[in-house]
């Protein structure tokens, strides 16, 4: 049997980027031989094994044929007769289809090195279409390598367009899609992911609610970029520049969905878009089975982002309602993430990226003031149950009034 490194490990070594995962392909071996050498199989049908000591992945060279729609629709054909070239030709991108032996000799039948140098993400062959998830993968690689100058080859974008239009993306499971989306959002340029999905028509299929934001105007005084889609891309870009966590980036992507529903007669104003957007945010959350913390923050940011922008003008009672809605007493981190997302929204506007956002510290101070209200004295006064809750609210309101007075003095 012969063993080669393949995929990301070879690609990233050639790019001079640190390698994290190493995948290997095994040519000329049978499942029985692998098991006899102590490799542990992954799953029942899939010809992938884990090395007994390193735990790294070894896959038997295989050809893949499609027998139906979606992930469950694959049949894998692995046998000792499958050659390295036959295995490589069914991979997604030429830059991922380079094999390397243990002497660092490269096998590169589909010119991956040429495309690495030219900074091109190009599909290897029509077999690309066997797995529609690759549309998302290519967009993710475009986001990851944008800073190195990579772009998607026009013919690959065209193939991605055909795949998108065929309806195949609808067959992807929520889990597989979310894995790509969440990884892409954590790249340095997540906005490129969304842009590439839009360029090939996949955004319309996956997140029509986000796609609908392009072409929708906003008032130029607040939004010099005008277009709501472009604004969303800038907010995402800011979230990556400011190293925000996944929850915040997800909330940034979805915060303005309501603007896609505004009747054209009302443009460029978007009255109550915070509320009209909530059902759309919920739908996208559920479509991809986003983790609970991502779902929650997206909904809260959708509902309250304009509150945050107007924080300095809010009455003490409104401030209190906001803090209560966030349960800032027990969930300080979530409130911090909310503030983070709103700050990205404020900065994701053309020419306003460096603006200051005093609302952030103001709200942090308000949360602190409300948190400092002690429960003990109220217990000592004999308050219990719902009455205690009411008394706490009254004290917190007083504290917030005092905080507002101090802040405006
Ligand atoms: N691959 C593919 N099509 C897929 C998934 C994977 O062709 N839908 C192939 C590619 O050759 C890829 C390799 O399997 O390079 C390993 O896949 P994976 O570990 O998912 O990705 P990497 O390319 O290693 O990239 P990353 O750095 O994102 O892990």
Topology of helices and strands:
Elements: E1 2-6, H1 8-15, E2 23-27, H2 31-36, E3 40-41, E4 48-50, E5 57-60, E6 62-66, E7 74-78, H3 84-89, E8 99-100, E9 106-107, H4 112-118, E10 120-121, H5 133-145, E11 151-152, H6 154-165, H7 174-185, H8 190-199, H9 202-206, H10 208-211, H11 228-241, H12 246-254, H13 273-276, H14 278-287, H15 292-309, H16 316-325, H17 332-347, H18 358-371, H19 376-380, H20 385-408
Helix pairs in contact: 5-7, 5-8, 8-11, 11-12, 11-17, 12-15, 12-17, 14-15, 15-17, 16-20, 17-18, 18-20
The protein binds cytidine-5'-triphosphate (CTP).
Cytidine-5'-triphosphate binds at residues 7-8, 21, 23, 91-92, 96-97, 131, 133-134, 137.
Short description, anyone?
The chain has 409 residues and is an alpha+beta fold. The protein has helices at 8-15, 31-36, 84-89, 112-118, 133-145, 154-165, 174-185, 190-199, 202-206, 208-211, 228-241, 246-254, 273-276, 278-287, 292-309, 316-325, 332-347, 358-371, 376-380, 385-408; strands at 2-6, 23-27, 40-41, 48-50, 57-60, 62-66, 74-78, 99-100, 106-107, 120-121, 151-152.
